[in-house]
Amino acid sequence: MQEQEQKLILGIDIGASGIKGAIVDIHTGKLQNERMRLVTPDPATPEAMAATFAELVDMHKWKGLVGCGFPSIIKNGVAHSAANISKKWINQDVEKLLSNASGCKVKVLNDADAAGIAEMRFGLGRGEHGLVILITIGSGLGSAFFLNGELVPNTELGHMFLHGDIAERYASNNARKRENLGWDEWGARFNEYLEYVNHIFSPDLIFLGGGVSKKFLKYKEHITVDVRVTPAQLLNTAGTVGAAMYAYEMSKK
Ligand code: BGC
Fold first, then answer.
1. What spacing in Å lies between the alpha carbon of 140 and ligand 1's midpoint?
2. Which residue among 17, 130, 166, 240 is least enclosed by CB atoms within 10 Å?
């Protein structure tokens, strides 16, 4: 068999605390270089973040297509929310802004959706049917929703209401740090959140992504919700890999 053509795309994962990038082989999901990271500017305004994004693209000496995961609702490249970033992002054409800043063509999607795409294609999601939900645990709670392998974008399950506020204020990693919660206490809270998700959607499988998924053993015993829950396999790299894959898919349309 002829060797498959290698297709490289720069994937960038913009988060509330860090902006990470790597060149991704979209056929294998493998990173071609050590992932690079810059600190997200504070305040995380469009101008400041676009400049940091462009710096990261430059660090890769990249001139081609870029896929980018972004921490908000994204429709046709435009941001429609801003929970953990500056409110100035709302209604910004993120694709246009980042393309202009970097001189590259940039395709943008929600960051949790990007992580989900990678996990479904190259991680434990391969071959999983029915309803699969990935919850990313970080500054906020992100979600990616797959029905028979097909993404339903922008689900924002971290913004369901729990105890009178959006759930991420109660059960994200930021909530754990802000309220100085031990793993037991936070694990019980997070399980309560998963119970709620399970009650509303009855998924077949829940993946946990984001930094805290690596610490699963610290709170595993509290995750008693009646559905299969497992840490994602790709962990930190999922956001960059999925963003690159999304840009590739979009470039074919
Ligand atoms: C945002 C989501 C994002 C998640 C993880 C939430 O606050 O509303 O769009 O996916 O954080 O970054």
1. 5
2. 130
Question: β-strand 165-166 against 228-231: which pairing, if any?
Answer: unpaired
195 C-alpha to center of ligand 1: Å? 20
pLDDT single digits (tens) 219-247 = 999 999 999 999 999 978 999 999 999 99
**Do 182 and 165 fall into the same domain?**
yes
Task: Judge residue 48's burial from the number of C-beta atoms within 10 Å of its C-beta, 0-12 exposed, 13-18 middle, 19 or more buried.
Answer: middle
204-221 pLDDT, tens digit per residue, is 999 999 988 889 999 999
Contact by Cβ (8 Å): 154, 73: yes
Structural domain boundaries enclosing 104: 8-113+237-251
Report the alpha-carbon distance of residue 185 to residue 187 in Å, rounded.
5
Residues of the chain short of pLDDT 70, as ranges, are 1-6
Q: Report if residue 120 sits inside a domain.
A: no
Measured from the Cα of 159, ligand 1's closest atom is: 8
Neighbour tally for 38: CB within 10 Å: 15
Q: Whose CA is nearest to atom 5 of ligand 1?
A: 142
In a domain, 121, yes or no: no
Residue 1 lies in a domain: no
Are residue 224 and residue 244 in the same domain, yes or no? no
Position in ligand 1 atom list of the atom nearest CA 166: 7
Q: Are residues 89 and 109 in the same domain?
A: yes
Model-wide pTM > 0.70: yes
What average pLDDT does the structure give for the chain? 95
**70 plus 107 within the same structural domain:** yes
Domain count, the chain: 2
